[in-house]
Request: fold
Amino acid sequence: MAFVKISEQSSLYNDLEKKSVGEILHDINTEDKKVALAVEKALPAVEKLVTEIVSRMKRGGRIFYIGAGTSGRLGVLDASEIPPTFGMDPSWVIGLIAGGDTALRNPVENAEDDTAQGWKDLQAFGINDKDTVIGIAASGTTPYVIGALNTCREHGILTAAITSNPDAPVSQAADIAIEMVVGPEYVTGSSRMKSGTGQKMICNMITTSVMIKMGRVKGNKMVNMQLSNAKLVDRGTRMIVEELGLPYDEAKRMLLMHGSVKKAVDAYNGVESED
Reply:
């Protein structure tokens, strides 16, 4: 059976330019409601991946996202949010996009068509068999991603793929295929819409659950978040007040002295922090 790109099929809506703003927004919202259900069907594959990542990360492994265009940007976005949210060093979760950082803002011609460049980009980080490489490709056919995943598997590196098309070439190149089938886009082929939304949801799931299992969350609090602005200092202070019953000013002093909620609480309790 020939591979069919569901994500490229014609929109279920037509004459978009003739619709009112209200109609356009309603229709987009109707389509967006389908995304969470599509992600739900992919949860078994996501669970399998997270379990494998945690095992590897506890031995020093890292997560690499790799993609092109919107898919690449979403991987870079998720990776960039891990240090401030969970206090992890930026080297633990890394996002790579075809064409490099320039491609985050501007398209780089033919960057996604190079089957060898993805592996070259990964080699710059000393990729090894403790790491996990997650290819993101809505179409499921991006050469930059497929080439990287194929070479990773040759080197015994765990691979996964996030795609919007079942039985896609990128799925066949990965050890674990996460197929999130959201159907045709509202604007035909515009994978920045439902496909991009679903990719963001899955990336959030992967890294959040991994960070929880790596001990970066206590209860339901981001106890290792970076104190990069007044809002986060206040949030951290209130966490310490809640945890230890200290006055606000004393809790804030401890937070700023130790640099994180976890370190402050550990110090107060006489526990040597691992961080």
